[in-house]
UniProtKB/TrEMBL annotation:
It comes from Prunus yedoensis var. nudiflora. InterPro entries: UDP_glucos_trans, UDP_glycos_trans_CS. The keyword tRNA-binding does not apply. This is Hydroquinone glucosyltransferase. Pfam families: UDPGT (PF00201). The lineage of its organism: Eukaryota, Viridiplantae, Streptophyta, Embryophyta, Tracheophyta. Belongs to the UDP-glycosyltransferase family.
Length: 188
């Protein structure tokens, strides 16, 4: 958590960060708990909140993710690559920084970074830590860099495709209608 905090600070970029307390019941401290006993801000580096108060907003435990992603000023999203977060980002055209923790998240990272090319992927050092300099570099690159512009452009293409699929005549709407028809016919 310290490296992430310092990386955000080093980047100089505006941010919203939902901070959760580490989950003490799980061996791997990378897992976090919404109902943490301690105040999540107590895990941040000393003075971080004061130093970043003009550019950052630290929110304890939870924020309305879809509302944040749909806001026009959201320039990127650092995510653990869960499927819901991935789809929400695509639907709203928000490029990603991919930081998977476990399970399918690692495969989602490969899809986002190498396949779809809508995300930058962080790298773990030999101790399994993502260092603050790497976080800062990726955040700045996503918001200000040429690679970020390419990711944003690619993500906008996916956003348009998602909107089309979800429209009244879109493939998603038609498929759902077909499923509903099949279920209806099974009831009678």
């Amino acid at each position: 958590m310290t490296e992430l905090a310092l990386g955000l600070e080093l980047s100089g970029q505006r941010f919203i960060w939902v901070v959760k307390s580490p989950n003490e019941t799980v061996k791997n401290a990378n897992y976090f708990n919404v109902q943490g006993i301690e105040d999540p801000s107590s895990f941040l580096p000393h003075g971080f909140l004061e130093r970043t108060k003009e550019v950052g907003l630290v929110v304890p435990s939870w924020a309305p993710q879809v509302q944040v992603l749909s806001h026009q000023s959201t320039g990127g999203f650092l995510t653990h690559c869960g499927w819901n977060s991935t789809l929400e980002s695509i639907v709203h055209g928000v490029p990603l920084i991919a930081w998977p923790l476990y399970a399918e998240q690692r495969m989602n990272r490969v899809l986002l970074v190498d396949g779809l090319k809508v995300a930058l992927g962080v790298k773990l050092n030999d101790k399994g830590i993502v260092e603050s300099q790497d976080i800062s570099k990726h955040v700045r690159g996503l918001i200000e860099g040429d690679e970020g512009k390419l990711l944003r452009s690619k993500m906008k293409e996916f956003e348009e495709a998602a909107k089309l699929a979800l429209s009244q005549e879109g493939s998603s709407t038609k498929s759902l209608a077909e499923v509903a028809q099949v279920w209806k016919s099974l009831k009678t």
